[in-house]
Amino acid sequence: MKLVKNLGIATASAVMGITGIGASSAAQAVQLFDFQYSFPSYEANSTPIFASGILTTTDLDAINNNYTITGISGTRKVQGITETIIGLLSPGTYGINDNFLNASTPLLTQNGFSYIVSGNGEDGNGNVNVFYSSFTEGYSELSSDVDYGSFSVSPRSVPEPYTVGGSLIALGFGWWTKRKPKSSFLEEAP
Questions:
Q1: C-alpha to C-alpha distance for 89 and 121, rounded to whole angstroms
Q2: Measured between alpha carbons, how far is 21 from 3 in angstroms, rounded to an integer?
Q3: Strand partners, 49
Q4: In the beta sheet, which residues pair with residue 101?
């Protein structure tokens, strides 16, 4: 009787787990991209800039062929000082940023994306804006006295929810079948 009860609970849990995994959620639409950019010295008093990290975006907008950047993490190094990227700035808050990542080149718009760092950033308040300049046909940072830099992204693989959920269910069943029973079937009978 106890075995039948345990099997019923395990089956109900598996069905609820699979149903919950299959339900659509905003988390399924998230895309992750590893990014990096660097800008060489442009003027005599400037220094090279290098930044890298992870961009979190929405799913691809097929009509506009772009992603909306919703989060960022990483580091930025300028004048030998490494600054931690704290977070993304809302669109239109610094350098008229739109926070779009294009699916084809140029990878950024002329408004680019903006974020805040633990250090001084470009404006003394920790703000940084990276964008594509059609005038110089290259990537740049607002107010950093550097141009003609490189910017690259590569998609990061995110496990599908069914893969994660199926693995958890398989591990649960494996644990349940391998555990040592306290009593045998014959001992349970009255």
A1: 13
A2: 27
A3: 39, 78
A4: 67, 108
Q: Extract the tokens encoding 16.
A: 């609820």
Q: What distances in angstroms separate CA 2 from CA 84, 163, 182, one per listed residue? A: 55, 31, 11
pTM, full prediction: 0.67
DSSP state of 61: B
pLDDT score for 57 = 97
pLDDT of residue 19: 47
Among candidates 70, 71, 114, 122, which has minimal Cα distance to 94? 114
The candidate with the shortest Cα–Cα distance to 39, out of 136, 119, 155, is: 136
pLDDT of 73 strictly over 90 = yes
Phi and psi, residue 168, nearest 5°? -65, -40
List CB contacts of 43: < 8 A, sequence separation 6 or more.
145
Cβ atoms of 72 and 92 within 8 Å: the answer is no
Interval 109-129: pLDDT, tens? 999 999 999 988 888 899 999
Q: Which helix (H) or strand (E) holds 81?
A: strand 81-88
> From CA 82, how far away is CA 27, in angstroms rounded?
31
| Angle ∠(166,167,168) on CA atoms, nearest 5 | 90
